[in-house]
Amino acid sequence: MSELEASFQRDLVDAWYPRSVDERHGGYVTGFDNAWQANEETNKYLVGQSRHIWVLSQLALFEGDTGYSAQARHGVRFLIEQMWDHDRGGFYEAVTQAGVPIEREKKSAYGMSFSIYALSAFHAATGDEAALEYARKAFLWLDRFAWDSEAGGYIDDLSLDGNWTRKRIGNGDTLAPGSKDYNSSIHILESYTSLYTVWPDEHLRQRLQQMLEIVRDRFVQEPGYLHLIFERDWQPLSFRDKGRDAVLGKLAYDHVSWGHDVETAFLMLEAVEALHGEVDAKTAKTAKALVDHAMATGWDERLGSLYEGGYYFEESGPLEVVMPNKIWWIAAESLNALLLMSQLYPEEPKYWQAFADQWAYIKEYQIDPVNGGWMSVGLDSDPLAASRAKAYRWKANYHDARAYMNCIRMLRGEFHLTRH
């Protein structure tokens, strides 16, 4: 416990703050090299900016403020003033360092979900009404333009005006407008859970319930993994029938992602607890299946931690590891999910043991012992990981921050879920 708390302070709090706060331009710095030297030329992205706001808001609650709400407010101001599209509504996906919109980036449900997540968390930490107003506005914009009123679910790929656009799947191939993917869907679930805790609106509650059911009952496949992309009518996108080479060339759009599976287990449990005050049997069973399948098929039995991705080349055949890297966010989400499952199922000691093994792996291979913070890839899968960037567009600190804070709360007995 003390070891986890010490790492939380050194490798999360002290590593990222206040150095991430961009006092010159507003918002937060996007890029840092391996030794935490800032790359001041990089653009700023909605997801990364929002994740810093969320983390700082959670730190304010976790630590009793100590100045974190002021650092979060710095980002909220940038988000509202520089990233909100005051003509068409919704948040821009990206802006320059100084806050000028980069319109070629268009808009996305994925990015919008993180703005809702951040602003609702900031309101929870501070009571700030402007943050709640923009969280509601983002929800209403997303629901107006991205919700599929005929087939259900949210469309991720949007134009600046909110029109559905085609999803590129590589080599010039596209899907017709209206495709749905689990990555945007699980984070919409996450953001709506957060917003619902501070704004228990009936329409929002309905959408949260619908998204829980869509993630649990459509995206999750037997025996316990998420299918990545569906077309608008819920036909699954798959390259299996095109042969091994075609699959390996399109893994970004069709594979089993064990990190997303264990993350989704947590997000579903969190959502159902917010909706109903307890975890129902169906959701608990599905969450358990996601974690069990990940541990059975994607876990490194020798060193610990989950691999990045696998593939069922034959529908009823074995799941083959095809993406063998150990990614930082997957390790973080595993840590959180395994301890949570240990609490939900104390009669099964495998979860506690796997949690301990995951933490041992993180200490040995994921944390930079020289410069602090988490490396993007574990040293066992990339011996040069210590020389690579600590932060970039897709690497901020919300996965590891959430894992640290949730696990510390659980170990302190301050957080638990109730099985029905």
Polypeptide structure, described:
The model has no long low-confidence stretch (mean pLDDT 96). It is built from 13 helices and 14 strands. The chain is mostly helical. The longest helix is centred in the middle third of the chain and has 19 residues, at 258-276. The strands form 7 sheets. Strands 1-2 form a two-stranded antiparallel ribbon. Strands 3-4 form a two-stranded antiparallel sheet. 50% of the residues lie in helices and 8% in strands. It starts with a helix and ends in an 8-residue tail after the last helix.
Structure summary:
By secondary structure, the protein is mostly helical. Helix content is 50%, strand content 8%.
In which range does the helix fraction lie?
A: 40-55%
Assembly status: single chain
Give the percentage of residues in beta strands.
5-15%
- Spatial extent as radius of gyration: 20 Å
Uncertain residue ranges: none
What is the first-to-last residue Cα distance?
29 Å
Q: SSE string, helix = H, strand = E? A: HEEEHHEEHHEEEEHHEEEHHHEEHHH
Structural class: mainly alpha
Strands side by side in the biggest sheet: 1-2
Number of strands: 14
Mean pLDDT: 96
Q: Biggest sheet: strands, sense, closure? A: 2 strands, antiparallel
Provide a count of the helices: 13
